[in-house]
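User: I need a structural model of Gypsy retrotransposon integrase-like protein 1 from Alosa alosa for a docking pre-check later this week. Nothing fancy, just the predicted structure tokens so I can convert them on my end. Input:
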Amino acid sequence: MGHIITATGQKADDTKIKAIVDMPTPEDKQSLQRLLGMTKFLAQYIPNEASLTAPLRQLLKKDIAWQWCPHHSAALQTLKSILTQAPVLRYYDHKQPLTLQADSSKDGLGACLLQDGRPVCYASRALTDTEKRYAQIEKELLAIVFSVKRFHQYVYGRPVTVQSDHKPLEVITRKPLSKAPAQLQGMLLQLQRYDLNVTYTPGKHMYIADTLSRATASRDGDNINENPCDERVVYALGATDALSEETLSQLKRATAADSVSQAVCEKHETGWPTKKKSLDKKLHSYWQVKDNISTENDIVMVGDKIIIPEGFRSVILEKLHLAHQGVQRTKAKARKVLYWPGMGQDIETMVEKCVQCQQLQPKHQAEPLIPHQVPELRWMKVGADIFELHGQSYLLLVDYLTKYPEVLNLSDKTAYTVIEKMKSVFARHGIPREIVITYHSPAMR
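Assistant: Understood. Predicted structure tokens for Gypsy retrotransposon integrase-like protein 1:
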């Protein structure tokens, strides 16, 4: 079957590993498919197999021309190197505590089920094109959902410690479902059937995640931005070219120099008071989001959103509005990944003061008022309208000369009822020559 059963656990068959290691560089899509097919057979021994093979699988797409590049060779060599060190998977013990490590990279999801520090099984899959556009917190939660579903037969009905290197998840998973961010509620609902304790574990202590990050770097051969905050700022501003490394450095310096941001960090580390009134007034606006606050690489976060210090908001507002998209679109773009108290009002003020936006804004010319000629006799000209008060409909008739009103109760707003009510009034005052209608309903047409 391609697996070796030993006294200590299960390992990959050396002949299967050798077949892949000795395989020459693929020359076409068919040979690459054979290679990936054999790799998939041994996927349970390879941490994050889906992420490691992502560049190779790109070549199998119908709209991609075959062109073997250096980063494909790097991915293949990394894969072969990991296979030669394929671990021995220990046997599952229903008496031992379970630890689940789940992680997400830019290309895939990875998971490992551990007992007593040794792997029981690995799992991984690639992210879809849609999932690649998720916010980082959504990817990390998706990794947990994927891992518990893949290891359902092991984790269902048992308490499981889930290790994640994304700190906001530790707080969010402890909240009632209704208090969680709307975009996460669907995935959190899928986790309700499991007994999970999500804990924050720094990446350096999650060896699978660490292996993934190193493998990804060697695979791509590029300097990958390891700061998810930086990626989120780029995404929010919608223009990578406009956001230089210097701008990111300025953001971090502004955060360090901002007294409110530093006070928020201090409360996050030392603990928030039990009552809002015990808090410094300058921090009151952060009270509602205090449980979601975290820090990453000298930047303060609320969930998956970056808190922009006051002194740097003008810079961010300027970059947000580079495309002059208007108030609502600018707000929507900012609210996905940015946060500061009063952000919506600041965006409105900025757009209102933007000269270019005001010049391009369509001019809505008000309709001119049309004067009415004053009639010579009473009830020669009558204005008619229908209005509602406390859930009841009424017909209003007003004489244009004397301003005398007649108000009649309507059982309904059908044309028949309105006409009958008008007849009762005109029987007393006479039939007018002109009726001015202001209520545009079928009954008044």
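Before docking, keep this in mind: The CA atoms of residues 36 and 53 lie 8 Å apart.
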